[in-house]
Write a structure and sequence with these properties.
Layout (H helix, E strand, L loop, with lengths): L2 H28 L18 H25 L10 H41 L8 H17 L5 H4 L5 H16 L5 H22 L1 H28 L4
Length: 239
């Protein structure tokens, strides 16, 4: 994704925030049973911080390990430039912004809005005749593919017991999240899809505050690794 494509994605991102804030309350007011969850249900948290951290250690290990490999074997890795201190401070700010903004929008606002949008689309595209195309597509194609790629670990949510729209909305939202990382190349696209699905799992299991914290830590750990790499490089005379 070049800079122009990324700007286009950001425009869609901002537009979706506005439309979600406007549309979601109106539809819920007219059609209160459209959501299988309370509007702020995911803002509650469950478990302890230690449980959140323990559940998330695989992605922390992955983020740190993958970053080390990229830094060692691809010296022009896009994070590794500039003064080390700037990378650390800037990375902390970026991580905090991403953890808060991306989790609130993707794992909550967009997710709920997509449940509404998909149910409306399903009704319009022959759902009123008992054969909705979006529901059929999720149940027979996108859902099974997501189940296979996640080794069945997310089946509880992909095929949610409240209906197909929950899983379909999760996948649609995560696809948009994935597209926002195209500037990182194919590796970033694939990685962001799996990481986004993990954040959904954290949100369902522990609540939105847990997803915010885990997202922040995942990002900041990567920046800390880059910081250490640049500091060592500077000490060895490479910078």
């Amino acid at each position: 994704m070049d800079s122009e494509e990324h700007r286009e994605w950001l425009g869609k991102f901002e537009g979706k925030i506005i439309s979600s804030i406007i549309i979601l309350p109106i539809v819920i007011w007219i059609w209160p049973e459209v959501l299988p969850f309370g509007l702020f249900e995911f803002w509650n948290y469950r478990g302890t911080i230690l449980e959140w951290l323990y559940a998330s250690w695989p992605i922390f290990a992955w983020g740190v390990g993958a970053t080390i490999v990229l830094l060692l074997f691809k010296r022009d890795y896009y994070y590794a430039n500039g003064p080390a201190e700037d990378i650390l401070v800037g990375g902390a700010l970026v991580s905090l912004q991403a953890g808060i903004l991306e989790e609130i929008t993707f794992r909550w606002l967009f997710f709920l809005e997509n449940i509404v949008s998909l149910k409306i689309a399903n009704f319009l595209f022959f759902g009123f005749l008992g054969f909705g195309i979006p529901s059929w597509f999720h149940i027979n194609i996108s859902g099974p593919v997501a189940s296979w790629t996640s080794l069945g670990g997310l089946d509880k949510y992909v095929f949610h017991d409240t209906g197909w729209a929950v899983g379909a909305a999760m996948l649609a939202t995560n696809a948009f999240f994935r597209d926002g990382h195209r500037y990182q190349g194919m590796t970033g696209v694939i990685n962001s899809w799996f990481i986004g699905m993990f954040f959904f799992w954290i949100m369902f299991k522990f609540g939105l505050p847990a997803a915010i914290m885990v997202h922040f830590l995942y990002d900041i750990f990567i920046f800390i690794v880059v910081y250490v790499y640049v500091v060592i490089g500077r000490a060895l005379g490479r910078a």
